[in-house]
Specification:
Helix 1 packs across helix 3. This protein has 180 residues and is of the alpha/beta class. Strands 1, 2, 3, 4, 5 and 6 form a 6-stranded parallel β-sheet that branches. It is globular, with a radius of gyration of 20 Å. The longest helix is centred in the middle third of the chain and has 23 residues.
Length: 180
């Protein structure tokens, strides 16, 4: 990886993107490269709704909110842009996978994305950005999985509640005590 000049990091503002952002910053620092954190945004309702009822004022509000999400992600992940890292943050309008691949277009780029932990509903709604980037990128892609603690938490009470949503309180208590 000695030929890496730019490290592009996909940032969604979700906690799942924080490990990828931290890793990308470390790589940029260690390779004396430039960190380019990218947050892609779409208008609520998508481009079709925006074309139907365009509003420059709303576009500016959404764009400003996307910048705020990017700064908040830096603050949450690392307490701000880390010292010793050249950073050129970008906020671009568009579908996240396509936006990331448009930015990570050079052979000496490295794209760092989080794999996230979306369930079936999340994949249907947001797609799988990391999978899209791995399949279509023209540069190396590094997919950073979520921390083990986050994965473990997803299989605990939250996942259990969705799998057992039709149970009554009595059924839950009896299954806990072993009585039927």
């Amino acid at each position: 990886m000695s030929g890496v000049c730019r490290v592009i990091a996909g940032v969604s503002g979700s906690p799942g993107s924080f490990p990828a952002l931290r890793y990308a910053a470390d790589l940029a620092r260690s390779h004396d490269g430039t960190l380019i954190p990218v947050l892609a945004w779409m208008p609520p309702g998508g481009d079709l709704a925006d074309r139907h009822s365009p509003s420059p004022i709303l576009r500016q509000i959404w764009h400003d909110a996307a910048w705020q999400r990017l700064w908040d992600a830096f603050d949450s992940a690392m307490g701000g842009i880390p010292a010793g890292v050249r950073a050129e943050p970008l906020v671009l309008r568009g579908v996240p996978g396509r936006v990331l691949l448009n930015v990570a277009s050079r052979a000496d780029d490295l794209l760092v994305v989080g794999t996230g932990r979306h369930g079936t509903l999340g994949r249907l709604r947001h797609g799988n950005v990391s999978r899209y980037c791995l399949a279509h990128a023209g540069c190396p892609v590094l997919a950073i999985p979520p921390p083990a603690l986050e994965l473990d938490a997803g299989h605990r009470l939250h996942g259990w509640a969705f799998r057992h949503h039709g149970l009554t309180v009595d059924q839950i208590i009896s299954s806990q005590t072993g009585a039927r």
